[in-house]
Amino acid sequence: MQIFCDFDGTISVEDATDLVLSRFADPKWEDIEAQWKQGLIGSAECMRQQIALINATKRDLDSFLDTVSIDPGFRDFLFFCEDRKIPMTIVSDGVDYFIRRILARHGIHGLPIISNTLTCHTVAGRDVYTLLSPFRERDCFSGAGVCKCQVVRDVGQQIYIGDGRSDFCVSDKVDIVLAKSKLAEYCLGQGIPFSRFHDFTDLLPTLKAMLHDMPRPLRAAKYPTIA
User: What's the whole-model pTM score?
Assistant: First the structure.
C-alpha cells in the first residue's frame, strides 16, 4: 500500500503558490491563470510564467512561507502512517521549495516530494526565480508540470488524497480516492468511487477503517523523520 497526497489545498490550508503570487507577483499572474482555466495553456506553462513574475528577496519569500498553515490533523495522520509502515509521497503540481519550507516550519522533514523545482539566482542585485518541471511528460494531455498518472503507475495498491483540478486525471487510475472540494465534485460527476473528507482529522478514522477491512501485510518502507 502506498499513499500519494496532493499538497496545495490538501495538506496546506490554502494554495501556497497562489498565496505567494498574490503577495509578491506582478498582477499579470491572474491573466495567466485565466488562460490556464480556459484551457489555452497547460499548468506547466502557466506556472513557469507566473513564477517569473515574483518580485521578492529570498528572505522575504521565506518569511512569508513561514506564515502558511497546514491542516491541523496532518501531523497525526502522518504519525499514524509512519507507525503502520505505510509509505506516503507528496505529489504536487506546485513548487518543491514552497512545500519543503512550509513542512519544515511545522516540524516535518524527509517526506518524499515529487513536484516542480524552483531555482533562484541573483541578477543585478535582484533575486530571480525560475521554475523547472523535471516530472513533466510530453504525452500528458493536461500539460501538467507533474504527470501524476505517471507517478502512480505500476505502484501496488494506491490511495490518493486530493482536492483540486490537478488531481482530476489521476483519480480514475488509483485503487482508492479520498477527496474533498473540487476533486470530490469531479469524482461525483464522473462516477468515480471516492470517500469524501473535510480535513485530516476525519480522514484518519477513514484510513483506519480501510485498514481494518484489508487484513494484509504492508510493505516495509523508509519513513520520514518528524522533528
Answer: 0.89
